[in-house]
Amino acid sequence: MLLGGNAAQAAEGAAKRIMVYGDSNTWGYVPVESGPTTRYPEDVRWPGVLQAALGPDYEIIDEGLSARTTDVPDPTLPHISGAGLDGSAYLPAAIATHLPLDLVVIMLGTNDVKKMFNRSPLRIALGVGKLADIVTQTKGGVGTSYPAPKVLILCPPPLGTVAPPERAERFAGGVEKSKALPAHYEAIAKAAGADFLDVGKLTATDGVDGIHLSATAHKAIGNGVAEKVRTILK
Hints:
Layout: H1 2-13, E1 16-22, H2 24-27, H3 46-54, E2 58-64, H4 82-85, H5 87-98, E3 103-107, H6 121-138, E4 150-155, H7 165-170, H8 174-192, E5 195-198, H9 215-232
Helix pairs in contact: 3-9, 5-6, 6-8
């Protein structure tokens, strides 16, 4: 009985576990107009800022991957594989890997506005809704009884002025689509029973390439998401 009581107390005192699932703006891609880049340090990336803001009672698990979409394969990066970049294909394994989880935070959709995918804002939002459903359906993963975590859907901020011309061509029409996403994301989140936050109200996409974020933007997102998380995991 004493051992059981101690175990229960340990469980009650355990840190709340949050998996952040996103693309290059979660991974920490440093904006450059062209050519290869590097990754922001952990304490600069918004998941790291989120961890610092929430403190030791929370554990942030960073699952960011550059070029990840909501639920469509990308054939242009065969060395990673199209399926690997399809957020819906990898998400069940990611959840099962990191269980137990209290919350999954999803910020995807920027790559879905690429011209080659020919997706409407509504279709992109439906992709995010599919991810929310996957979180709910995965439940205990592989052979465990853990409950499904809660879901927070983040709508990424609209694109800025995309550069250079080659990148602008890949994202042709994307600026307009990205501006239309918040209303669709909010409706889909409500339908899926998920929480919602419009990151465009926290920061603009201010990187020199028009797609990625400055360190200042990462800080704004991390602190804004922390405030939202506190209301979800009271």
